[in-house]
Fold this protein.
Amino acid sequence: MWQSASVSSTSTSRLALQAAIASWKAKIYEHIVVNGLGGYVLVWVAFPVFTLASIGLIYRAHRPGLVGYAVVAIAASAFITNALYYVGQLLDEERHRGTLVNLFLSPAPRLSWLTGLAFAGLFETTVSAAVCLLFGVIAFGVRFDPDLPALVLSFVLFIASLWGLGFVFSAFGLILKRSNDLANLLSSFVFLLGGVYYPISLLPAWLRYPAEALPLGYGMQALTQASLHHAAIAQLAPQLIPLAGFALALPVIGVLTFGWIERKVRRRGDLDLY
Amino acid sequence: MSVAYRTEPVYLLASILATTRRYLQDVSAYVIQLVRWPLGPLFMFATWRITYSASGRTSADGATLSGFLLVGIFGSILWSSSIWGSGYAIQNERDDGTSGSLFLTPVSRAAVVAGYGLGSFIWFLPSFAAVGVLGWITGAHFAVHAPWAVVLAVLALCIASLAAGFTFSGIFILTRRGNLVANVIQSPIYLLGGLMVPLSVLPGWLRPFSDAIPVTHAVVALRESTLLGAGMGSTVHDVALSLIASAAWFVIGLIGLWRVEDVAKRVGQLDLY
Amino acid sequence: METRGGAIIASHLRRVYRKGGRLFRKGGETVAVDDISFQVPQGTIFGLLGPNGAGKTTTIKMLSTLLIPTAGTATVGGHDVVREDRIVRRQLGVVLGGDRGLYAKLSARANLVYFGNLYGMTSESIRRRTGEMLELVNLQDRADDRVEGFSRGMKQRLHLAKALMHDPPILILDEPTIGLDPAAAVELRRAIGRLVPEHSVLLTTHDMHEADQLCSEIAIVDQGLIVAQGTPDELKARVGGNRRVVISTQAPLNGRLAGVEAGLNALVDVQRVITDLDDVGGSRLTVLCTETPRALDTALALLRATDAVITQVQVVEPTLEDVFLSVAGKSFE
Ligand SMILES: Nc1ncnc2c1ncn2[C@@H]1O[C@H](COP(=O)(O)OP(=O)(O)OP(=O)(O)O)[C@@H](O)[C@H]1O
Ligand SMILES: [Mg+2]
């Protein structure tokens, strides 16, 4: 006879943690072992360096002051790319492989395996950003003058709001399918308004308003100031306060959107269709 | 009553067209595809235009900034259409789980790749239209003296992009991360191919890399013939360079395609089927 | 034509998969197909039978040009599957089955049209065959719906239509009736049965009944080797001991049975006779034999002579399952 008690069940929080760790391990394994360490990391790492070279070369002649900004901002943009192409595509990728249904069938909270999967990408992204900074130092002679507490705080808030965004994208990817195309479209939009190649203060006025409604510009400003010009937390308050708002609100919005879209998709019945 | 078969050349052409048609049926099934292609180039143009303004430059390689960027974006759309079309063809079949069925057929693999390329080119027509509208709005200054030189340059650019698509279609599969690689190679091409960055700002030691990319020469030819009023003579020179590079890439691509199937059949572990 | 010997000839096929080898770690090896040889005679249905992981699909992939054998050779329609792969593909219709392998965003019809093109058929042929095939697999009503919304059975039927589209002389079917409901399976088996003798068919299955019914010859595969081969009857003859006649009577026969036993034991076909009581208190006579008709006939005649009232007669023929159990020493599923 089948006994329901034969598998000991854990509390929800234990389950969430367990699911997050298991997903994280699975993803890391898939990336490093299955894809091969050498080629994959090399390719991933090289990604933003060419963009940085392009922008740096354009600025160097007449606006050398902007080169430092570009180096830090483009390094940070690796995390944006991660949020868009990686976190944003997680669900769709699982669907493509036919494993999404099984993730949904599990009783673990959605956010736990999503976070676990997202963490796996963070490692590669960090390496990639570091290579970017190094390239900035070697190729363009950029000098850093960091204020550590401000830098750490800016970074944490920046990442939190990015993940929130990533979860929102991920949910929309689920409904639109082809999340890769969605990511491409969004990335062209985000690079225009996110203060990656230039500070958003240089945008024409009519583009500055939508840019200020996104967390990215504040994050970039805070990160560049804190790392290049030794700006302290108090000095960065105008950027850090709105950024903290985004960092708190976006993950919540992400989870809500996700729940809403999941219901919608289940109603529509194409969870496992591609 | 038995089945009648086409003669070999007709078969080749028909399989290209059938694949094109299927590609179009396939992509049009997704809403996102309908908005992405016309909007993408607009965002891209704006981003680079603002970057250039911030840089304090007023011209790039002798052309106006808008003109310079429009030609670059035109080239990059062609490039994207090729990479995501023909370049991504086999990867796409694998993702959709149809590569087994496909490889069971006697069809020429190159025909399928070409079919994707053509389909994607058609799908990108709205993007080209968007670039045209941009050119009109921003009042980019065009100076065409030899219309045939422009046609020639555009053709060379198409061939150069297709060559890239062929080359990458095999590589994508062999690296197992097609999507990522396709995205990653974009930025080196913007830089080295001189699509978004003037070749004159590149350090000298990077030039050989630029020269090996067929797109580089075709874009130079297109810029000079549309923006700087170049005649047939200098265009033909650049187009010839572009075609030589394209030919080399095509050969690499065909070898790659052959390799993919061979590796898949030997190793049996590329998840190809 | 050199194909007279067999539509498909596999000769010492072997396939080893390397697994998990990466960077500094050398992976192990899986021998999926060890050494397999067989011939599918022209115009017949040949079955490959075996448990999960026996190597059936791997064999099929090698024969259908999707996988290069580690060793051994094979010809399809007289052409080598490695060197003449393009010619082989033209002659071959393959059902790999499952949920994948069809263009999900395309309708059933568009899928068939596309594959017709990939096989180089003329537009006229494509149009005609598409209609015929949709009718054959009974999908006319859903012809213009997208495949993504199809049930598993519908997809399986479309797979078969796809394989038959270019009217190939040789067919390879990997578990063709998997996922079909009983009625649809019967229907499809009938359709497969009608394919011979114009076509030659190689099929794999887990369904003993299906193999028995369809195949004129069967090879039982286990762990990459053929462990038994022959016609279904030949195979069953190997486990002849399982052939038996069981007869029950209303009341115990006691002493009257000795004569019956002696009479039966006199027959050459009969190996052993066992008598005991059945669940409801009557006598039960079990005759183990190599031929059932004569044993049955004799047993009934002898019993009637004793005035016994016969309540139940059972003739047990060996099944392929028995064959499989006896050669592979384990059960399916
Ligand atoms: N691509 C592959 N890489 C590594 N091993 C494989 C691969 N494909 C199959 N195998 C292994 O080869 C063996 C035979 O597999 P195969 O699919 O041929 O079995 P099968 O007889 O078709 O089984 P089933 O009845 O379950 O379909 C199995 O042990 C399997 O794990
Ligand atoms: Mg199998």
In short: The pocket of adenosine-5'-triphosphate (ligand 1) is lined by residues B 268-269; C 17, 19, 30, 32, 50, 52-58 (CB under 6 Å).
